[in-house]
Amino acid sequence: MSIIDELKWRGAINQQTDEAGLADLVNEKAVGLYAGIDPTGDSMHIGHLIPFMILKRFQLAGHRPYIVIGGATGSIGDPSGKKAERKLQTMDQVRHNQDCLTAQMEHLFGQDGSFKIVNNYDWLSKLSLLDFLRDFGKLFNVNTMLNKEIVASRLEVGISYTEFTYQILQSIDFLHLYKHEDVQLQIGGADQWGNITSGIDLIHRQEGSDAKVYGLTIPLLLKADGTKFGKSEGGNVWLDPEKTSPYEFYQFWINTDDRDVVKFLKYFTFLSQDEIQHLADAVAAHPEKREAQTRLAEEVTEFVHGHQAVVEAQHITKALFSGDVADLTASEIEQGFKNMPSVTVTADKQGLVEWLVDTTKIEASRRQAREDITNGAIRINGEKVTDPAAEIDPTSAFDGKFVIVRRGKKRYFLARVQ
After folding, report:
1. Residue 80: pLDDT above 70?
2. Which of 5, 89, 223, 336 sits a CA distance of 20 to 30 A from 136?
3. pTM above threshold 0.85
């Protein structure tokens, strides 16, 4: 099966500029192709991941992926998907974001030299205003640019000349990569179609109409409920483990709706058709086992964070489900309890009743605290405590950093020891 046929099976193709021509090209040679990302933030989120999953598939099929970090375009702002002008970042912030995104890409694509990261600041920053206007501006018709969806969607509220020129700059990227790196294919989201076709038009004008260059876009990924893929209740799901812990990342995929899980397996894993069909059958026959969700979470978490992150996420999940938290590490507690109720306490030993009521406010009154302790409803660091006269030592577990309290069957509280 060719890479194009595989992408069709995975539902990952929205539009192609020349379907037959591209199919022939990828069967003839190892093709240079690229996708870009602007350093508007210091981490990708899972929505950003979609085009780079496609790029990764091309890499695994023996093609030559290029990743363009938009050091230049990111400094002015892409109008795509925005109802108003982007706030310009300082160049120091742009450079910091470039470094962070580069590190993430190197992790995803490896260090074996089978892909290349480039920065469009390296060539766009060398253009003078006169060169830009004479060599490129002259080749773009304003009427055509206005009709591009990416610009037309902004006309009602207004668009600056700065953002209006974005499609010209992105077109120059494609031309530069075609001339200097033999890149013939650009990949992007559905909203990038206008920018991609502008680049192809520019190459044909400068290099001749017989230049073999192509564009491919990916459909907008929607969940079964009609909402846009990529966010959890807490906001974006980031690839940066400091922003979204590997445990939270794993849980996002575990909680995938049955109606979406097969689609996400096709988009976000490198499992074969047979493996995905087996999981689709499992969803239909035994949805309560959530076999497909578990495999999805394992595959994507390992791709983004590595195998050890999967092991830790599963360990945390099992511990929280069973209540057996005693053998969690401090790092695992930091991940698993990140969004649970927490309080800061001192390292001083104290009577448990007073600690639950006065120090942590976990219990509303001493009477209620004594009753819950006597009834076995309180667990400290996984151990049931039934003696109201018991004393608590906050530094006795988890490297002296945390105390985990479980009240009843499911209510967890975290005390952070100063």
Report:
1. no
2. 89
3. yes
